[in-house]
């Protein structure tokens, strides 16, 4: 089983160097980092080094880092903390294209009598900063905007957004899960109060994440218990995970130029090749401001799921932009927010590359894709004369 793995925005392979760094913590280094004895203390010492390494890649202080269990926990903690620390402020601003880690929480908070403003995006997935500025109110507790979109790769102007929020005295959080390692982030320069990232999106393992909280930011812990993470997140540390995450962040940091040149060139070759060989095809997102590894391509008149199933037979892993829920074929909330035409939104496929993607991987997709789409279009009941019904109600 050696797939052509082009689904790196869903999860990534653990880098061999990361695995190697973690292994001792599954073996001899099993001590509790909080213990008084030398045996546990040694693990505590390694953890401290990992925290410093992670901080260095982000341009922040080690004390500003809270290790968590995943990106979702980091996002939840940031948002819930901002609300709990400012009980008189009951308004939250976010976007319509966030990951469910933010969007589903925002919906949940609306049921708890918080008010949420969801900023829209244009056809390229871009935000309107004027709309953001107008949405900020006296009782706005937090602005939460993702750094880069996981489906289209569109990058949001977080430096400008953060500066605007600072000017207006509002806390700002960014879900940078897809951005870290792909976009240069320097927290010494970027005035966000909080930032979330996740290990398994950058070649560390699943079950570890990180929340950056700028010094002085009002904060209320989500997990209450022991005094780990300076009392900001209880629970005995996931030592192996944290060691792996720090290693992965260092590798990602050191590989950034590679990601932005070789990986981008591969992505562009893949995208241009498909556009040239398959008619009625468009690219979703902002071509000028996009993650270097992501390509979301829409094929008119075919179902994304059908494309994925056929690609799977060739050992190609990609992802569909639409989630098919209980019989109602519903295009992704991101593509809907962008107003991607219905006939395209249903046939959207996301390819997300990594630094392990090869020329051969791209060659195979380019060879297979025209055949796959041609086969599906022959079978498709939809065409120019009978487009699919606008069945989407949500
Ligand atoms: C994957 C992802 C998350 C969630 O991270 P987990 O570690 O899987 O909880 C949050 N935001 C974005 C943008 C993501 O891509």
Automatic annotation (TrEMBL):
GO terms for molecular function: cysteine desulfurase activity; iron-sulfur cluster binding; metal ion binding; pyridoxal phosphate binding. The keyword Transferase applies. The keyword Hydrolase does not apply. Its cofactor is pyridoxal 5'-phosphate. PROSITE patterns: AA_TRANSFER_CLASS_5. InterPro entries: Aminotrans_V_dom (IPR000192), Aminotrans_V_PyrdxlP_BS (IPR020578), Cys_deSase_NifS_bac/arc (IPR017772), Cysteine_dSase (IPR016454), PyrdxlP-dep_Trfase (IPR015424), PyrdxlP-dep_Trfase_major (IPR015421), PyrdxlP-dep_Trfase_small (IPR015422). It catalyses: (sulfur carrier)-H + L-cysteine = (sulfur carrier)-SH + L-alanine. GO terms for biological process: amino acid metabolic process. Keywords: Iron, Iron-sulfur, Metal-binding, Pyridoxal phosphate, Transferase. Residues 4-364 form the Aminotransferase class V domain. It is an enzyme of class 2 (transferase). Homodimer. Belongs to the class-V pyridoxal-phosphate-dependent aminotransferase family. NifS/IscS subfamily. Catalyzes the removal of elemental sulfur atoms from cysteine to produce alanine. Seems to participate in the biosynthesis of the nitrogenase metalloclusters by providing the inorganic sulfur required for the Fe-S core formation. This is Cysteine desulfurase. It comes from Solidesulfovibrio fructosivorans JJ].
């Amino acid at each position: 089983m050696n797939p052509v793995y082009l689904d790196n925005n869903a999860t990534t392979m653990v880098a061999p160097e990361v695995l190697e760094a973690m292994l001792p913590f599954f073996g001899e280094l099993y001590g509790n980092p909080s213990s008084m004895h030398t045996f546990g203390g040694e693990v505590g010492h390694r953890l401290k080094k990992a925290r410093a390494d992670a901080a260095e890649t982000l341009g922040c202080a080690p004390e500003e880092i809270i290790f968590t269990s995943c990106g979702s926990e980091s996002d939840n903690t940031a948002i819930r903390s901002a609300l709990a620390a400012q009980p008189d402020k009951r308004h939250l601003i976010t976007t319509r294209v966030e990951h469910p880690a933010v969007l589903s929480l925002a919906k949940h908070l609306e049921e708890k009598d918080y008010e949420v403003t969801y900023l829209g995006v244009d056809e390229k997935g871009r935000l309107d900063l004027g709309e953001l500025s107008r949405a900020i109110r006296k009782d706005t507790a937090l602005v939460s905007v993702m750094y880069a979109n996981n489906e289209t790769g569109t990058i949001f102007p977080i430096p400008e957004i953060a500066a605007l929020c600072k000017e207006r005295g509002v806390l700002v959080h960014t879900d940078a899960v897809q951005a870290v390692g792909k976009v240069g982030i320097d927290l010494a320069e970027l005035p966000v109060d909080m930032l979330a990232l996740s290990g398994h999106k950058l070649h560390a393992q699943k079950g570890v994440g990180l929340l950056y909280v700028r010094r002085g930011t009002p904060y209320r812990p989500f997990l209450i218990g022991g005094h780990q993470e300076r009392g900001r997140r209880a629970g005995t540390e996931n030592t192996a995970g944290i060691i792996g995450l720090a290693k992965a962040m260092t590798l990602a940091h050191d590989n950034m130029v590679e990601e932005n040149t070789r990986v981008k060139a591969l992505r562009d070759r893949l995208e241009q090749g498909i556009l040239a060989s398959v008619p009625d095809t468009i690219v979703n997102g902002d071509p000028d401001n996009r993650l270097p590894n992501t390509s979301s391509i829409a094929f008119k008149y075919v179902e994304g799921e059908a494309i994925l199933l056929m690609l799977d037979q060739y050992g190609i892993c990609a992802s569909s932009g639409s989630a098919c829920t209980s019989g109602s074929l519903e295009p992704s909330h991101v593509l809907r927010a962008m107003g991607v035409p219905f006939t395209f939104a249903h046939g959207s496929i996301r390819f997300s590359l990594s630094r392990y993607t090869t020329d051969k991987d791209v060659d195979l997709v380019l060879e297979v894709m025209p055949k796959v789409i041609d086969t599906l279009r022959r079978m498709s009941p939809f065409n120019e004369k009978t487009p699919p019904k606008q069945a989407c109600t949500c």
